[in-house]
Amino acid sequence: MAQYRSKPRFWIVLGIAVLSMILLAACAQSAQRPETVEVMVEREVVVPVEAPAAPMEPGFAGEAVSQAPSADLGSVSERMIIRSAELAVVVEDTETALIEIREVATALNGYVSNSNVWRADERLRGTITIRVPAESFDVAMDQIKDLAVEVERENISGQDVTEEYTDLSARLRNLAATEEELLALLTEVRERTRKAEDVLAVHRELTNIRGQIEQIQGRMQYLERMTALATINVELIPGQDKPIVEAGWQPVRTARAALRALIDTGQFLADALIWLLVYILPVLLVLLIPLIVLVVLGRRWRRRRAAKKAS
What we know:
By secondary structure, the chain is an alpha+beta fold. 58% of the residues lie in helices and 17% in strands. It has six helices and five strands. It has helices spanning 2-32, 94-107, 137-146, 162-192, 196-228, 251-310; strands at residues 81-91, 111-120, 123-133, 150-160, 229-238. Helix 1 runs parallel beside helix 5. The N and C termini lie far apart (119 Å).
């Protein structure tokens, strides 16, 4: 009877080992020859929705195994390129330029991802980062440069991720096929052996495969989002003929400066008093106590000596 039970376990473990070897060989082959796999994806990529998890069966408590995704990658007619640019432009008014660049991004179905403004030499400087659809990249660049008085710096770069996306697609198909085989094996184990250790062994392999599938899907979705939207970083340099603060006497500004100086002085005096009470006086007290003791002992010794001489 014991021999009859051990044979199914042997074939189960052997089946898991064979499936793992097939998966490793398929991944290694796809990694060595990524150029042989042709993937054709449209420029506007729709993020795939992950298949819902399979319902738990009563035979194994706490088990939830997701069904293998039916990934239909379709065909791609263009390279997948992450486009970005950096512009440094001279503008007449920084605030107006920020508003106009924000309007350019909104009109092209994009958005502002970052914006920063600061003062330098009594002039307003700023930076703004926008993201627009990749097909509107050239239009956005032309419109931004039209808003500038002068273009001081322009840098355009592109990162081709087609090969990485192709390799991820091949690995995803291999992992999905392996997951289907493991699901079939899990059903067979439940029907034939009904042993918790056998079910757990297959379930561990399924969990590992599912984790790899979700990791690859996350990376593919990231690449799809990055290639769908281009990034433009713009540095705004104010022109030299329009300072922020106009020349002339400004009593309100002078009063604010005087009030600020008064507050700073009050804070300095309060800080000095705190240092005096909390730090300086205790340290002086610690240093003076030994001196006081020495002085008192010295006076007593002199008095005794004077008394001895008088006697």
